[in-house]
Amino acid sequence: MATSTAQRTGIWIIAIVLIVGTLAGFVAMILAPQNQAADSARLEKVYAKYQKDNEEYQAKVTAQADELSQKYYGNFSEYQNEAGEFDKDSVKELSTRDLEAGSGETVTKDSKYAIYYLGWNPSGKVFDSSLDDGKLKAPLVRESEGNWIFPGGQQGGVIEGWEKGILGMKIGGVRELTLTSDLAYGETGSGEDIPANTPLKFIVMIIEKPETIKQPEIPKELMQSYGG
């Protein structure tokens, strides 16, 4: 049966569409690896810059910690042998003992400052300390109530006994804190050195808040590439 002009035109249109579609798919197959390579190269460049920025950040943090250690180690290290056994049943309330009066501003609930510390349990076991093989670790920094910056840049809170026991100190001062268990780690405890319902003692030294070193943010492109 002979085809009409309209039918022949329709056939040609379908053929052209199929050819164009095939060519488009072929071009896409050729370009896909090139696009992937370009995306990978761009991500590698972004990552390299982030890695460099992070290394510079870590170097600044280490330099600052070393500078503060040189300034305060001699003073704080005098108290490293203060830890000793104490009767946990005798601890009925928060108590403080000033070992050294500071000369700076008085600490209030709104104060910003940094702290070096030494903590021990009733058996006299030191479970954590800013002292580290002849130097001081980076101090903990208080930005506001419940908002502390830990070495490494992590943010979080500290035990309630610190927030309460440090009030009234002056910057530069050293104080011994005796905390009831509910002002420390309470019924949960914290590891084998701090069982549940354990009172604790700390020596804390308050210093001026050091300059904030901004931590580089992870680029959005990297976050997205890892499904973030």
Question: What is this entry, summarized?
Answer:
The chain is of the alpha+beta class.
Give a written overview of the molecule:
There is one protein chain. The protein is of the alpha+beta class. It has a single domain, classed as Roll (Chitinase A, domain 3), CATH 3.10.50. Helices cover 37% and strands 19% of the residues. The chain has helices at residues 5-76, 160-165, 220-225; strands spanning 95-100, 113-120, 126-129, 140-144, 147-149, 155-156, 174-179, 200-208. Strands 1, 2, 3, 4, 5, 6, 7 and 8 form an 8-stranded antiparallel beta sheet that branches. The two termini are 62 Å apart.
Helix-strand layout with pairing:
Elements: H1 5-76, E1 95-100, E2 113-120, E3 126-129, E4 140-144, E5 147-149, E6 155-156, H2 160-165, E7 174-179, E8 200-208, H3 220-225
Antiparallel strand pairs: 1-7, 2-3, 2-4, 2-8, 4-5, 5-6, 7-8
Structural class: alpha+beta
What is the average per-residue confidence, as pLDDT, rounded to a whole number? 84
Radius of gyration: 31 Å
Shape: elongated
What is the percentage of strand-forming residues? 15-25%
Number of individual domains: 1
Low-confidence stretches: 9-21
Helix and strand run: HEEEEEEHEEH
Number of strands: 8
CATH class: Alpha Beta
In the CATH hierarchy, the third-tier topology is known as: Chitinase A, domain 3
Which range best describes the helical content: under 10%, 10-25%, 25-40%, 40-55%, 55-70% or over 70%? 25-40%
